[in-house]
Amino acid sequence: MNKLKKVFVRWESFLVVLIVLEMVIFGSINAKFLNITRLFNSLNQFIPICIISLFVTFVMITGGIDIQAGSIVGLTSIAVAVLWNDAGLNIFVASFIGIMAGMLCGALSGFFIAYTGVQPMVVTLGGSFLYSGLALAVTGLSSTEAYKGISNFPEAFRALSKSKLFDTVPTQFLIFLALVVISFILLHRTNYGRRVFLCGVNCNAAEFSGIHSRGIVMSTYILSGMSASVAGILLTAYLGTAKADMGSEYTLPIITAVVLGGTSNLGGSGGVIGTALAALTIGLLRIGLNLSGMATQYLDIPVGVLLVAVVAFRFAGTNPRLKKLFSRPKRAAAVAKNK
Predict the structure, then answer these.
(1) How far apart are the C-alpha atoms of 229 and 98, rounded to whole Å?
(2) What is the residue-averaged pLDDT of the chain?
(3) Which parts of 240-297 fold into alpha helices (H)?
(4) CA 69 – CA 232 distance, rounded (Å)
(5) Whole-number Cα distances in Å, 199 to 25, 82, 107, 192, 318
(6) Between the ranges 79-93, 153-167, 297-311, where is the mean pLDDT highest?
(7) What is the DSSP string of 144-196?
């Protein structure tokens, strides 16, 4: 009975209920929302955000934040395209180099955060501008005009996102599910994951316990950079074109997905299952609102409101003054009952 009660009070259970409500509400507004093939096709555009969110969870559990992932998406996209189109490399070799470049970007920012003590917000904000600028510089190396983008990729590369299982489930979604499993095992079933949580609870205490906390913190940014590169490659394959500004609008949905998924913005707690469910919740919200008639340019408004609401709710739940305020009526009721 206690186990059953724990399942119902888990945050992940609330997110599942939220997803079901979205299906019911938006499905009743527009029947197209319940068309599975159409839903997967629409969700394809949001899968890169889902993938990045999984590994930004690692970063935020350590007490950090990563707002540079969107810039790494654009840098990877254009770098892979230039290596293939202008340098003549095999597209998959270029993609491997792109992933290595994303990890290097994450390592650079992670090093400054872990070893110099600079605030993660400052470093990743600087990284966002730096990697966006590098993406524009790489674009200048191409013989193709920047505004056109590089396209005409090989069919084998396009198949990364265009092929479907049973003619319904896109490969991108299957890759996302595989990364959910990998990130879950890494965070929740390994010593490395336990060290990530310990660094978030108390980095100094973790260091005194024999954990190389600075290396752990740096590694989370490397994982985040890697996920951004994978997302950039999948997005390029899906759209069939590469541009330097891809992913520029990803920061808000990524942070919202991680926080909505139950990861504390102060570090020390969280999980990838919650993040995965929250990312899908946001993706379905955007799709549903769009099918309900809301213009695309306004879709960030409900996501922003959701982020503020979740952070405010979590602050209210941990603030001792508010707890004391709301506990007074209960105490008064208990005293009156005893009399």
Answers:
(1) 6
(2) 84
(3) 251-260, 272-291
(4) 10
(5) 41, 39, 17, 11, 20
(6) 79-93
(7) S-TTT-EE---HHHHHHHH-EETTTEEHHHHHHHHHHHHHHHHHHSSHHHHHH
Alpha-carbon distance 254 to 336, whole Å? 48
Backbone angles phi, psi at 208, to 5 degrees: -70, -20
Number of residues assigned to the chain:
339
Report yes or no: 290 and 296 within 8 Å, Cβ to Cβ: yes
Q: Which residues have C-beta within 8 Å of that of residue 328, sequence separation ≥ 6? A: none
Domain 11-294 class, CATH top level: mainly alpha
pTM of the model: 0.87
* Cα-based distances in Å from 6 to 21, 203, 261: 21, 29, 17
Q: Is residue 5's pLDDT more than 90?
A: no
Distance of CA 97 to the CA centre of its chain: 22
CA nearest neighbour of 285 among 8, 74, 33, 88: 33
DSSP 66: -
State which amino acid sits at residue 45: Q
Cα 283 vs. chain centroid, distance in angstroms? 12
Instruction: Give CA–CA dist 73/236, Å, rounded.
Output: 9
* Tokens found for residue 27: 């499905």
Type of residue found at 257: A
Buried b (16+ CB within 10 A) or exposed e, 134-144: bbeebbeebeb
Q: Which residue has the tokens 């504390």?
A: 264
Lowest-confidence region among 204-208, 211-215, 281-285: 204-208
Lookup: tokens for 58: 């690692």
For residue 183, what are the contacts with CB-CB under 8 A and spacing of at least 6? Answer: 54, 55, 57, 58, 272
Residue 200 tokens, joined: 């978030």
